[in-house]
Amino acid sequence: KSMSLIIMKFGGTSVANINKINNVAKIVASESSNNKLIVVLSAMAGVTNQMQNYINEIESEEIIENDLLLTSGENVTIAILSAILKKKKIKSIPLLGWQVPIITDNSHQKAKILNIDESRIMKFFEKNDVIVLAGFQGITNDGHITSLGRGGSDTTAVAIASAVSADRCDIYTDVEGVYSADPNIVPKARKISKLAFEEMLEMSSTGAKVLHTRSVELAMKNNLILQVLSSLIKKPGTLILDEKKLIEKEIVSGVSYSKNESKITISGIPDKPGISAKIFGLLASKNINVDMIVQNISQDGISANITFTVPNSEISYAKKILQNNLNLIGYHSIKTDEKVSKISVIGMGMMSQSGVAQKMFKTLADNSINILAISTSEIKISVLIDEKFTNIAVQSLHNAYNLEYKDE
Ligand code: ADP
Ligand code: ASP
Ligand code: MG
């Protein structure tokens, strides 16, 4: 058997304490006899949150210092794992992002990886069999440490796998794979054995945090097969791959939810051409991400209302921009609501099947859940609802599309 190059990524819960890191060391050791390995680690579960709390507490707007804080947890875990591997006589080297280097742009806290030099990485393998790499971090051309956005160590793993043309990229986590819904909300959710990149992309971007959205985009672009699997139980996980490799296309493969949405309603705007262009142009120029949009004519037939959603973190900024431009837009009032949630159903087979949306609307209606906004893509339908109905909506849709796990 020839030597392979394998990327193994372990998330925060898999490295949450020394016991867990010892377990990771065992998995790494079992793969290292025949292979070269790059092991990408997150911080211990909760540590990055703690750093974010410090940033909030001192109200720091210093993007360079903030990223230094946010990325610090990964420094700890790679040092611990590498030291344990060396005790097992495995030739290991711990590397921070800048040592590779993983070059990113300078959009701190959501930095994009620009370049990873393959030959530099291969050099580390001349004297080592395992590279233990800090996930979630990189360095700008100016020499400042950056972070890739929360959950970003998946993206480090996929980027490095692409850079070195790895034979495998395994994402180890605290669940056994990608499920038909978050298994923490739907206990009867089914583990999906194979999923198309497009479906996973829609699932991640609509809230399934099992993979960082950007990591799925990158894998799809480079046609790199990903496996999501458990670090606790040795079992095959979920393969994420090209749609052409799927024999059967599910009409609906999964249901996801995101509570990270806020709703803005602007009422009493003039019902005339150009008004939407004005409002959304204004928000776009300030880099505010608008997602769902609904417009309706008001009772008087002269003015209109517009409702749309933005991420929770951008709601107060968006409101401020609109208030500062009251004269330019000319509206009556603005109302915001942060207690909303977006529920999505996703499936490749939806393209060739009618009635999927109808079933979604009927299921929600049967549960007396009101729909506040709707948006669709070829393989996804999303609705906005009151946040307090999140669990019941996910569970009843999961049921309606017959997604639950069955003993066979
Ligand atoms: P890690 O620390 O390993 O990166 P994350 O917490 O980022 O792990 O992602 C794993 C979690 O994603 C699971 O514990 C689960 O609660 C959540 N999750 C949400 N949707 C799904 C889904 N459809 N399938 C699997 N897990 C999901
Ligand atoms: N530690 C980082 C975070 O908590 C990155 C990651 O876990 O993927 O967001
Ligand atoms: Mg994660």
Beta-strand share of residues:
25-35%
Looking at the structure, what is the overall shape? Answer: globular
Q: How many E strands?
A: 18
Q: Helix fraction?
A: 25-40%
For the record, give the distance between the C-alpha atoms at the N and C termini, rounded to a whole number. 35 Å
Strand order of the largest sheet: 3-6-2-1-9-11-12-10
Protein structure class: alpha/beta
* Rounded radius of gyration (Å): 23 Å
Helical run tally: 13
Mean pLDDT score: 95
Low-confidence stretches: none
How would you classify the quaternary structure? single chain
Bound molecules: adenosine-5'-diphosphate, aspartic acid, magnesium ion
Q: What's the story with the biggest beta sheet?
A: 8 strands, mixed
Can you walk me through this structure?
By secondary structure, this protein is α/β, with parallel strands linked by helices. The protein has 13 helices and 18 strands. It is 33% helix and 27% strand. Strand 1 (4-10), helix 1 and strand 2 (35-41) form a beta-alpha-beta unit. The longest helix is centred in the first third of the chain and has 16 residues, at 72-87. The protein is globular, with a radius of gyration of 23 Å. The model has no long low-confidence stretch (mean pLDDT 95). Bound molecules: adenosine-5'-diphosphate, aspartic acid and magnesium ion. Aspartic acid binds at residues 11-12, 42-43, 48, 73, 135-136, 150-153.
